[in-house]
Amino acid sequence: MKLYEYEAKQIFDKFGLKIPKQLGVIEKLEEIEKMSLSFPLMVKAMVLIGGRGKAGGIKKPNSIDEAKEIIRKMLQSSIRGYPIEKILLEEAVDISNEIYLAVTTDPATFDIVVVASASGGIDIEEVAKTNPELIWKKTIFDNAKELEDTVAEEAVDFLSKNFSDKPEIKNQLKNAIKSLYSAFQNIEAKICEINPLILTSNNQIIAADAKIVLDDNSLYRQEPLLKSIGIDPQSKRHDVSEQTIFEAKAYKIGFPYLDLLENPENFVKEKDKLYVALVPGGAGYGIFSIDEVVNVGDRYFEGKVVPINFMDSGGGPSLSKVADMFHLLMDHPTTGLIITSRFGGISSCDIFIRGLIMALRDRHLQKRRMIPVFGRMVGTDLAAAREYLEKAKKETPDPLEDLHIVVGNQKIMADVIRDGIEYGFKIKKQQEIRG
Ligand code: GDP
Ligand code: MN
Questions:
Q1: Average pLDDT over every residue of 131-158
Q2: What gap in Å lies between CA 193 and CA 152, rounded to an integer?
Q3: Are strands 403-407 and 274-280 parallel, antiparallel or unpaired?
Q4: CATH code of the domain in which 169 resides
Q5: Final residue in a domain of this structure, among 91, 113, 130
């Protein structure tokens, strides 16, 4: 669940971060009549996406007339498809430096990651691409509840190189980083981000923007928090989860699916990496698979292997649902390899392999993108599955050229994964040569 900027700021405030004074959140122009405003003032569009500044959703009027005109226009417009229904009015702070600060989770290892940069205010993904050396990043192990002083100080030293080494500023920065970390842990967030964290001309450190994404799975424990910022825990706000287009598609087809990449719709692949999609049989096995793919990648492939999603195909899916799962993964522009594994009592290996082969044959006919599939099957209807697979490979070798399924447990899954990754890299290289 994403929070609005004004809500996120109120939470950060509780954890000791300084925020600009909020004058109010309005939904109608008339509401400003009874407010006492002073100028300059920030008028900010409350939509649950970033990049509002560039899209005209952040303005700084100098008079009441100017403010009214801006608000009137904003309430009639939208930002990238999100209508502006609420506007935050708050005190404008002057800016001497803009810092980027975030606490989030590594999707592959589930360790916490703290990120800081003195190049705040702009798109941090852009900085990551063009000047990665300007970003400081630290992985925190063991789910530590507080951020150690030494780690916060390391971040501060990195940031201070770029603008100021005044002790009073360094101290405020350190507190800000530690506060953001505490907030992240206490509210069980997925992301806490401030961009920009501002250094003012009179040496104050203030959060000028704020982003919080809460973990939907822990919302039931966070009811007091939600109430404290005026959200009714029973309200429909729960439904404003930020599904990716792939998650929405999977939801429609009817199987649980999660993208591990942030922003998978516009993901920019790193050239030398292999991106692996996972079709495990069951959620627990899925978590294991993520771990195993990362481990095998670290051990044998210089850490160049990235799991990109996670699904639960257990519980006996129908033939067409199995096919749809593979279509979804092969249509996913990032996928370079699919690893699957059937390990089960409830679901039939026979139906699974038929669904998979149906998808591959259809794609081959329709000249859609083909992705190598590696996997292993053990469990229900294994004999029938083996027979069907062998026959299918003889009948239609072409569409099934890159299908490599071990039937039975003569190979451990780690080896299947390793074989798959090796093959995935080989195919990737061939495609690069062919252009
Ligand atoms: P975003 O574009 O959706 O990330 O929205 P932000 O809240 O980050 O605002 C975009 C930009 O507006 C920031 O990078 C700042 O440069 C500027 N800005 C935001 N708040 C203030 C403020 O209180 N004072 C001043 N002077 N600039 C601000
Ligand atoms: Mn911002």
A1: 95
A2: 16
A3: unpaired
A4: 3.30.470.20
A5: 91
User: Other CB atoms closer than 10 Å to residue 72's CB: what's the count?
Assistant: 10
Q: For ligand 1, is residue 196 a contact (CB within 6 Å)?
A: yes
pLDDT (tens digit per residue) in 368-379: 999 999 999 998
Question: How far is ligand 1, taken at its centre, from the CA of residue 407, in Å?
Answer: 57
CATH number at residue 261: 3.40.50.261
- Best CA proximity match to 416, nearest among 314, 341, 345, 322: 341
Q: Indicate the burial class of 59 (C-beta count within 10 angstroms; 0-12, 13-18, 19 or more).
A: buried
Q: Based on the domain organization, do 249 and 396 belong to the same domain?
A: yes
7 is a domain residue:
no
Same domain, 34 and 65: yes
Residue 4 inside a domain? The answer is: no
- pLDDT at residue 239, as a whole number: 46
d(CA 372, CA 330): 9
93 ligand 1 Cβ < 6 A: yes
Is residue 115 domain-shared with residue 158, that is, in the same domain?
yes
Nearest atom (ligand 1) to Cα of 5:
7
Residue 187's DSSP bridge partners are none
How far, in Å, is the centroid of ligand 2 from the Cα of 126? 13
Residues 211-240 have pLDDT tens digits of 999 988 888 899 999 999 998 877 656 444
Separation of alpha carbons 110 and 107, rounded Å: 6
Closest approach atom of ligand 1 to CA 49 = 3
